[in-house]
Design a protein that fits this description.
By secondary structure, this protein is mostly helical. Helices cover 56% and strands 7% of the residues.
Length: 161
């Protein structure tokens, strides 16, 4: 969901969205979402649960960025991205990862190199393939599990809005 500000009484979102994988998406007019949100509709409850999960994620990532190594943050980012895809492959540049993590590209190069040397990932020309997800999950900080549990709790698979 992009643009939660539209139903939280904001008129615009000062952010940028990046699509990491192919798939389907729907674009709805903000007025339609706002009108539906005014009623005690299933969409309203779903959007509120999503917003709660997003707030939890934002807070956890802020703590993660302050207290954990770049390698752990990269593991968290890779695993979180894969959770939203049907593959073990990401097509993403080091520059984009650096922007997502708020670090220098050279730091991403070093952290990805360590994960590749450990044979957890294969990284080449903007493509990351996870080779050993269980070991990647072993290396990640607890922030990944905290955020995943919250999303799973609030937005379980197959949820009927």
């Amino acid at each position: 969901m992009i643009g939660i500000a539209s139903f939280l009484s904001g008129e615009c979102t000062r952010s940028q969205a990046v699509v990491l994988g192919a798939g389907c998406a729907y674009r709805l007019r903000a007025e339609l979402v706002k009108n539906e949100f005014k009623h005690a509709s299933p969409l309203r409850h779903l959007l509120l649960r999503y917003t709660q999960a997003l707030i939890a994620q934002t807070g956890q990532i802020a703590a993660c960025n302050r207290h954990h190594s770049l390698e752990q943050q990269l593991c968290r980012w890779i695993l979180s991205s894969l959770d939203r895809l049907r593959s073990n492959k990401l097509t993403v540049t080091q520059a984009l990862i650096a922007a997502m993590l708020g670090v220098r590209r050279e730091g991403v190069t070093e952290a990805a190199g360590k994960l590749q040397a450990a044979r957890l990932i294969h990284y080449s020309r903007g493509k990351i393939t996870v080779l050993d997800r269980p070991q990647l999950e072993h290396r990640v900080c607890e922030c990944y599990a905290v955020v995943k549990r919250e999303y799973d709790r609030l937005l379980p698979a197959g949820i009927a809005a």
